[in-house]
What does this fold into?
Amino acid sequence: MPVLNRIAAYSDEMREWRQHLHRHPETRFDCHKTAAFVVERLKEFGVDEIHEGLAESGVVALIHGREPGPMIGLRADMDALPMDEASGKPHASLVPGAMHACGHDGHTTMLLGAARYLAETRNFAGTAVLIFQPAEEWGSGAHVMVDGGLFERWPVNQVFAIHNMPGTPVGTFYGNAGATMAGIDEFEIVVTGIGGHGAYPHLTRDPITAGAAIHAAIQTILSRDHYALDRLVVAVTQFHAGTANNITPEKATLSGTVRSFSEAAQATAKRRLREICAGVEATFGVKVALDYIEWEPPTVNDPDSAQFAFNVAEEVGTVASRDALPEMGGEDFAYMLKAKPGAYIFLGNGDTADVHHPAYDFSDETAPYGASYFARIIERALPVRG
It folds into this structure.
C-alpha cells in the first residue's frame, strides 16, 4: 500500500509547515516558538490532550482511538543545529547561527501529518502518544524527558522514531533489528608537568612527551584490549600544547570521542583510558587528570519491534534492508529505547546534501511517507477489535 491518500491530499500543507519551521530554527532546549507552532496545529486537528513544558519546551499530545487499549509512542525531534545555512533556498533560515541541517523540521512535520490523520480517522483501539522533543543535537532532551517521568505519565507499550537519510531514495526505509546508532562518550586529558626553557629539558617535566605516550597507548585499546568484532572507536581529535619553540610548556591537553555499540565496549574504553593515564603519570613524573563524560548509550532496537516497523514500512514504501550496518553517529532516542521496547529506522531523503552540511535541506517529498509510516504504526499496533 502506498502513501495514505488522506495524507497525500494535504502534502502541500505539510510542505508549508516544514518550510515555516525551516525558516525559524531553534536550538537545544529553546524550542518554544517551534513548540507553539506544533501546539497550534495540534489544536486545529482536535487531538484529545496537549501537555507542554516537558524538558523546557517539549510537547506530548494524546489521541484516543475508537476503543480503549494500550498506548504506543511516536517521537519527533524539534531542534536545529548552531550553524549558518548556505542552501540558497527561498525558505532558508532567517536566524543567524541556527539551521535545520539535520531535518528535524521534517521529522516534526511528519509527526504533525500523522497527528492530523489519526485525529480525523481514529481507526485504532488505544492511545497514540505523540512526543515532540527538544535538544536532540545537544543536551540529550530524550534523557531529560525520560528522567522527568515521560513514561510514568504515559506508559507506552512501545515507542518508535525515524530519521531521514540523504543519499537514499525517497520512500525507501532501512535499518536493523539491534544496535543501530553508536553510543557516545567524550574525554579530556590534562597533562601537567614542569615548564621551562626548551634548551634545558632535564630541568622540566615535559607534558608533550607524556601526552604523545598517552596518544600512542590509546591506539592499543582497539588492537589489544577489545574484541575485534565488537565495533569501537577511540579517537583523539585534539592535542593542544605550547606557545613558542624555545619553551617547554607546563600543560598539554588531549581530547576526543568514544563510539561503540555495547555498554561492555564503553566500559573497556573508560577503564583502559584511566589505566593508561595512571601509567603515564607514574612513568613520566607528571600529573594526568582524565575527565570522562558518559554522554549517550548506544541506540539499540528491540528485535520484535524492529521487524514490526519494517513490516509497516513495506506498506507505505520500500524496505531496502532489515539488517543494515549500524551508523557511527549518535542519537538520544537511545534513552527512550532503554526505557521501552521500540525501533528507530531510516527513511530516504533523496539526492540531497548530507546532514550537518550547510547546504542540506529536508526533502518535502519525504514527509508523506514518514507521516504515513507513523500513522500505520498506530493502526497496526492498536487494531480495532470490533
